[in-house]
């Protein structure tokens, strides 16, 4: 049994809503509201959901790029939410993040060489010669060449920039990489290159990924287990085969049925959801999905469902599924 | 087979830039029949959006201009139409919707005023009738509480609702052709499903033909009858969606279809096309795809293949020396 590298318990991240001249706090946006999951070492753990579901905030809260409001983030058994700023900064050697838009995360005034060397300098690794060697090794590892180190980010295509961002994340040999929509901004023919690269690196660097995306087929391809988020909560979490074969939460079912299939004439029973995602500043009582759920009952409007196990490595937060043993 | 509605022949659209003249669209042929849904699919810089802007004569002036070819809409070459004629055509006969509905809506006008504006430009009707028509259009595109929404401003609506409003504006004069440039790219999947469903329904009810421009093969497979695949300013393959997806002929089309992950499949590694998408105008000779093609021969880099019949079905054409 492989160990859990990451364990997240009841993680919540709220944003204050401020109003008026005094910026008085008038409410809260519960971007992430009591989320729990565990990621095994060497695993790719997917988080899917639509915009505003809290998947990116979850990813950033893990690294405390956004401070979580409550809950635990256990990384190798240590609660990183309790670390001081300086301790956290050092901890990030082992926890890195890559973003959707590599152009925004690479300093446009620095050459690639400097961009890649910087994390090494910040964390005091090696002397100039050793650092140079490390940088030159890694740029080749991500599929670029040494001569490209003396160029600026704007001289690269989107796919190449994402390779540079990946190299930058790998410089410190992290254990965990949070990848926030890493291929969403890329052209179709480039997406598969980057996904393949990330898989190769996972093997050679023994990486664990938290892979955040809205594209269900990309997540199915890339991840081992998947959590589905809606309005700040995890509604279902399962082994990917189980999730895609037998989606249980009505939201997961609708989400899977909504994705257009590149198979012409594929007979698909589409569940068209009514309406839109409610504002996270004003979430519905009970089950957050009850306003759009085709199967909602009175109980769903008052009582919040908790995640319960319905199968081997399959958990769902829905009143339609009785807890095991209660039948 | 329906009557031809739009026929583009050898369209050349050039952009004057610091790097010289760039042929963003380089000899494109395209036919749309009445009531048909045709997709143009391709990656960034392939010229799919420029093709649609050329049809509408909405190219950024004076940088972009149509340098050659014709765009026959019914019996008229609209590539040569003047601005006043184009103004009659836009909205009345051909309408267009874009990826980001917020930038196409005027933030200072109510939803109702914006629909009414289009109506009053093209039809001689009173303000009152225009407003009534606006409410009816909003209902038709599935906007709840249409009577109230008609008086709201665009920022009060969500992305999906704004795109519905755009569709209402685009269709209020019952055009014969709707050009939709990545209409659902900025939307969430569940909202995308709603909008695609709506567009399909309106196509069936009103017979408005749709030119769907997208990078998403799933959207094409679901919506379109025919598809045109573009690469670096040229059409590399065209045919019925069924035929092109099941029996792709051009190595680029094959590669694209193979490189997308599918929910039904379980493959350890995805196929990938090597190299990157070329900047427009950088490849001037031979097959534009040759530098990335795994089947490229000497001839491919030197000579540009013609778009010729290939595959089994009539009208399935591809631009590749392997299929000549």
UniProtKB/TrEMBL annotation, chain A:
Enumerate the Gene Ontology biological process terms. peptide transport; transmembrane transport
Please name the GO terms that the record assigns under molecular function.
Answer: ATP binding; ATP hydrolysis activity
Q: Known SUPFAM superfamilies for this protein?
A: P-loop containing nucleoside triphosphate hydrolases
What the entry lists under Gene3D superfamilies is as follows: P-loop containing nucleotide triphosphate hydrolases (3.40.50.300)
Domain called ABC transporter: residue spans: 6-256
InterPro entries per record:
AAA+_ATPase, ABC_transp_ATP-bind, ABC_transporter-like_ATP-bd, ABC_transporter-like_CS, Oligopep_ABC_C, P-loop_NTPase
Claim: ATP-binding is one of the keywords in the record: yes
Instruction: State the family it belongs to.
Output: Belongs to the ABC transporter superfamily.
Q: What is this protein called?
A: Oligopeptide transport system ATP-binding protein
Which taxonomic lineage is given here? Bacteria, Bacillati, Bacillota, Bacilli, Bacillales
From TrEMBL, chain B:
Q: Name one GO biological process term.
A: peptide transport
One Pfam family hit? ABC_tran
Origin: domain of life:
Bacteria
Q: Which SUPFAM superfamilies match?
A: P-loop containing nucleoside triphosphate hydrolases
State the CDD domains in the record: ABC_NikE_OppD_transporters
The ABC transporter domain covers: 6-257
- GO CC list: plasma membrane
- InterPro entries in UniProt: AAA+_ATPase (IPR003593), ABC_Ni/Peptide_Import (IPR050388), ABC_transporter-like_ATP-bd (IPR003439), ABC_transporter-like_CS (IPR017871), Oligopep_ABC_C (IPR013563), P-loop_NTPase (IPR027417)
The region annotated as signal peptide is none
Q: Name one GO molecular function term.
A: ATP binding
State the UniProt keywords alphabetically.
ATP-binding, Cell membrane, Membrane, Nucleotide-binding, Transport
Record's subcellular location: Cell membrane
As for membrane topology, the entry says: Peripheral membrane protein
State the NCBIfam families in the record. Answer: oligo_HPY
Its family remark reads:
Belongs to the ABC transporter superfamily.
Protein name from the UniProt record? Peptide/nickel transport system ATP-binding protein
């Amino acid at each position: 049994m492989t160990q859990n590298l990451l364990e997240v318990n009841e993680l919540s991240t709220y944003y204050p809503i401020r109003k008026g001249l005094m910026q008085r706090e008038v409410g809260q946006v519960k971007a992430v509201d009591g989320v729990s999951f565990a990621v095994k070492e060497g695993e790719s753990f997917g988080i899917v959901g639509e915009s505003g579901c809290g998947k990116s905030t979850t990813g950033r809260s893990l690294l405390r790029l956004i401070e979580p409001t409550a809950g635990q983030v256990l990384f190798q058994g240590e609660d990183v939410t309790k670390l001081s700023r300086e301790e956290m900064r050092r901890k990030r050697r082992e926890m890195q993040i890559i973003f959707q838009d590599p152009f925004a995360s690479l300093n446009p005034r620095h050459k690639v060489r400097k961009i890649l060397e910087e994390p090494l300098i910040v964390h005091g690794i090696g002397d100039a010669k050793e650092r140079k060697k490390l940088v030159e090794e890694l740029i080749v590892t991500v599929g670029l060449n040494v001569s490209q180190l003396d160029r600026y980010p704007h001289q690269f295509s989107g796919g190449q920039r994402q390779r540079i961002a990946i190299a930058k994340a790998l410089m410190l040999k992290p254990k965990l990489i949070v990848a926030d929509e890493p291929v969403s901004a890329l052209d179709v023919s480039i997406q598969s290159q980057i996904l393949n690269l990330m898989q190769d690196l996972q093997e050679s660097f023994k990486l664990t990924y938290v892979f955040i995306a809205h594209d269900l087929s990309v997540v199915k391809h890339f991840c081992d287990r998947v959590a589905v988020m809606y309005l700040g909560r995890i509604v279902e979490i399962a082994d990917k085969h189980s999730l895609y074969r037998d989606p249980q939460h009505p939201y997961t079912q609708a989400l899977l049925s909504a994705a257009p299939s590149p198979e012409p004439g594929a007979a698909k029973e589409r569940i068209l959801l009514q309406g839109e995602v409610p504002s996270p500043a004003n979430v519905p009582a009970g089950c957050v999905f009850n306003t759009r759920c085709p199967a909602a009952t009175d109980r769903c409007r008052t009582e919040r469902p908790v995640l319960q196990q319905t199968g081997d490595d399959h958990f769902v937060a829905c009143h339609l599924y009785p807890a095991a043993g209660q039948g | 087979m329906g009557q031809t509605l739009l026929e583009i022949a050898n369209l050349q659209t050039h952009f004057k830039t610091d790097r010289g003249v760039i042929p963003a669209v380089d000899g494109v042929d395209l036919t749309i029949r009445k009531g048909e849904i045709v997709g143009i699919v391709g990656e960034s810089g392939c010229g799919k959006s420029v093709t649609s802007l050329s049809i509408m004569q909405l190219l950024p002036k004076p940088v972009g201009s149509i340098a050659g070819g014709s765009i026959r809409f019914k019996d008229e070459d609209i590539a040569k139409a003047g601005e006043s004629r184009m103004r009659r055509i836009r909205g009345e006969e051909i309408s267009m919707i874009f990826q980001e509905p917020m930038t196409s809506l005027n933030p200072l006008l109510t939803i109702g005023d914006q629909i009414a504006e289009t109506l009053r430009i093209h039809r001689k009707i009173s303000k009152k009738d225009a407003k009534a028509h606006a409410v009816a259009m909003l209902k038709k595109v599935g906007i709840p509480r249409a009577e109230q929404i008609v008086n709201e401003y665009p920022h009060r609506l969500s992305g999906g609702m704004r795109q519905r409003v755009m569709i209402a504006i685009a269709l209020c004069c019952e055009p014969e052709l709707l050009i939709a440039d990545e209409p659902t790219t900025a939307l969430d999947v569940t909202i995308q499903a709603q909008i695609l469903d709506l567009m399909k329904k309106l196509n069936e009810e009103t017979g408005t033909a749709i030119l769907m421009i997208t990078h998403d093969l799933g959207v094409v497979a679901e919506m379109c009858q025919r598809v045109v695949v573009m690469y670096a300013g040229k059409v590399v393959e065209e045919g019925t969606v069924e035929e092109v997806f099941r029996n792709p002929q051009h190595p680029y089309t094959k590669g694209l279809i193979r490189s997308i992950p599918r929910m039904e499949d379980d493959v350890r590694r995805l196929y990938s096309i090597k190299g990157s998408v070329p900047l427009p105008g950088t490849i001037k000779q031979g097959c534009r795809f040759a530098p990335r093609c795994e089947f490229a021969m000497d001839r491919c880099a030197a000579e540009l293949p013609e778009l010729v019949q290939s595959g089994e079905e009539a009208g399935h054409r591809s631009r590749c020396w392997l299929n000549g």
